[in-house]
Design brief:
It contains 6 helices and no strands. By secondary structure, it is mainly α. The chain has one domain. It is globular and about 35 Å long. The model has no long low-confidence stretch (mean pLDDT about 85).
Length: about 110
């Protein structure tokens, strides 16, 4: 999850914030706590390009992008990212694409990520 799905979520968040909310790369970088160069790599499919999310997962990511843009405490951002990650896992993507994935150590629970 850390190597494939989380970067793909960040890439989708960056695309959403720029294309749907008119933010620039620096604004997205500030919201996501990334460098502008990292945002550029996400947008140019150099990072996080290996995952095709379902329409439902994309909607969940877009909803999270709105909440991020409205302003969230860092702790709430982490919880929100974990919730999106869990949503992707429940959507069946994980079992279909990464059947041997281990337990999540980032979210602090025992769901498979």
């Amino acid at each position: 999850m850390v190597q494939r799905v989380l970067p793909a979520i960040r890439a989708e968040l960056a695309r959403c914030m720029i294309c749907e909310h008119g933010k620039n790369q620096q604004e997205v970088a500030d919201v996501l706590g990334l460098s502008r160069a990292a945002v550029s790599q996400y947008l140019n499919d150099k990072r996080g390009a290996e995952v095709d999310f379902s329409e439902e997962a994309q909607q969940e990511i877009k909803s999270f992008a709105v909440r991020l843009l409205d302003g969230m405490k860092p702790r709430d951002q982490v919880a929100g990212m974990c919730n999106v990650c869990k949503f992707v896992q429940r959507s069946g993507w994980l079992n279909k694409n990464e059947p041997d994935a281990g337990y999540c150590i980032l979210c602090g629970d025992d769901e498979v990520h």
